[in-house]
Design goal:
CATH topology: Jelly Rolls
Distance between the termini: 37 Å
CATH superfamily: Jelly Rolls
Low-confidence stretches: none
Strand content: 35-45%
Oligomer: single chain
Number of domains: 1
Helix content: under 10%
Structural class: mainly beta
Order of helices and strands: EEEEEEEEEEEHE
Number of strands: 12
């Protein structure tokens, strides 16, 4: 399975507007958490899971969210394809399948990104694989703050 962007629908009238996703099923979601960064262009990467799935929604600002399918969690391929999504609130919700590592970098000063997870925190800890933040480095194009 590949990552997919679930687009919002939109409706507006004289009262205002509504963004919606009527075909999104959150039956698998066990928890959620919100991340915001103090500095612009902060990279938080790479975090992978064999079992856990995630859904990502930008709540404020703009983020570069990147994903890599992991072929071998002990020795991942540095040449693996990096999926890149430049996301704002109105762009929808990004589904991250299992067997992927993900990372994000905020591109705006005011920022927050929400993650929905298919595993409880207790179960997620046993399915947690971390890789160096620039092992795959799609961030360099946007000049992350660790290059300052």
């Amino acid at each position: 399975m590949e990552p997919s962007l679930i687009n919002y629908g939109f409706s507006s009238d004289e009262r205002g507007s509504v963004f919606f996703i009527n075909n999104l099923n959150f039956e698998k979601v066990k928890r959620t958490y919100l991340v915001s960064n103090k500095k612009t262009k902060t990279v938080r990467a790479w975090h992978g899971h064999k079992i856990e799935e995630k859904w990502v929604s930008v709540e404020e600002g703009e983020f570069l969210v990147c994903l890599v399918k992991i072929d071998n969690f002990k020795k991942p391929d540095i040449k693996s394809k990096v999926y890149q999504f430049k996301l704002k609130k109105e762009d929808g919700i990004l589904h991250i399948p299992n067997n992927y590592a993900n990372g994000a970098m905020n591109l705006s000063k005011i920022n927050s990104i929400r993650y929905f997870s298919s595993l409880s925190l207790k179960d997620s800890i046993n399915d947690d694989f971390r890789f160096d933040s620039n092992f795959w480095d799609p961030w360099k194009t946007y000049k992350p703050n660790y290059y300052e």
